[in-house]
Specification:
- The protein is mostly helical.
- The protein is built from ten helices and no strands.
- It folds into two domains: about 70 residues, Alpha Horseshoe (Serine Threonine Protein Phosphatase 5, Tetratricopeptide repeat); about 70 residues, Ankyrin repeat-containing domain (Serine Threonine Protein Phosphatase 5, Tetratricopeptide repeat).
- The radius of gyration is 20 Å and the shape is elongated.
- The termini are far apart.
- The N terminus is likely disordered.
C-alpha cells in the first residue's frame, strides 16, 4: 500500500511541475506577444504552450498583440488557431483592441480570419464605436466597408456617430453621417 501511495504522490508532483512549467510558458507567451517578439512567440507556442491561455483578466496573446499592433505576431497566432472572437473580463475582443488603437493592418488580419464585426463589450461597445471614439478614420472606413453595424448602441445609448461627435472627430463623424449613421 505504501508503495502505491508513493507512486501516486510522485505522479501528482510531476503533474504539478508540468502545470507550473506550462503556466510559466503561457506567461512568457503573453510577454513575447506584447513585445512583438515573433521568434519567441513561435518558440514558446511550438513548445506546447496554450496559445489561447488567458491572463487573470482574460487577456490572450492575440488580444495583447492586437492591442500593441504587432501584426506579424497576430498573423502567426491566427494561423495557429488563436480564438479570434474570445472576450476578456470586460467583454473586449482582439478586434476591439486593435480598432481602438487604430492598428488597421491588424484589424484587416482579424476580419480576414472571421472576427465578428458587431460583438459588443459588457458596456455595449463595438469595434466601430471604439474606433470612432478615438478618431481612427481609416479603421472606421474599413469597418464600414465590411458592413459593421453603423447604429449599434452601447449601454448608454451612444452610437459610433455620437462618440465621434462628442470626441470632436469631425472627419469620422462626417464619414459616418455620409454612410447613413444616425
Amino acid at each position: 500500500m505504501l508503495r502505491v501511495w508513493g507512486t501516486g504522490l510522485s505522479l501528482l508532483v510531476s503533474i504539478l511541475m508540468l502545470m507550473a512549467a506550462s503556466a510559466e510558458d503561457e506567461k512568457n507567451l503573453i510577454m513575447a506577444a506584447m513585445k512583438g517578439d515573433l521568434a519567441a512567440v513561435k518558440q514558446i507556442a511550438t513548445s506546447g504552450a496554450d496559445i489561447n491561455a488567458p491572463t487573470a483578466k482574460g487577456l490572450t496573446p492575440l488580444m495583447v498583440a492586437s492591442l500593441r499592433g504587432n501584426a506579424e505576431v497576430v498573423e502567426f497566432l491566427l494561423q495557429n488557431k488563436a480564438e479570434v472572437d474570445r472576450k476578456d473580463a470586460t467583454g473586449m475582443t482582439a478586434l476591439m483592441a486593435a480598432a481602438k488603437q487604430g492598428h488597421l493592418e491588424v484589424v484587416k488580419a482579424l476580419v480576414a480570419k472571421g472576427a465578428s464585426l458587431d460583438l459588443q463589450s459588457e458596456k455595449g461597445l463595438t469595434a466601430l464605436a471604439l474606433a470612432a471614439m478615438d478618431g481612427r478614420l481609416e479603421v472606421v472606413k474599413f469597418l464600414v466597408g465590411k458592413n459593421a453595424n453603423l447604429n449599434a448602441k452601447d449601454s448608454a445609448g451612444m452610437t459610433a456617430l455620437s462618440f465621434a461627435t462628442s470626441g470632436s472627430h469631425r472627419d469620422v463623424a462626417s464619414f459616418l453621417s455620409a454612410n447613413g449613421a444616425k
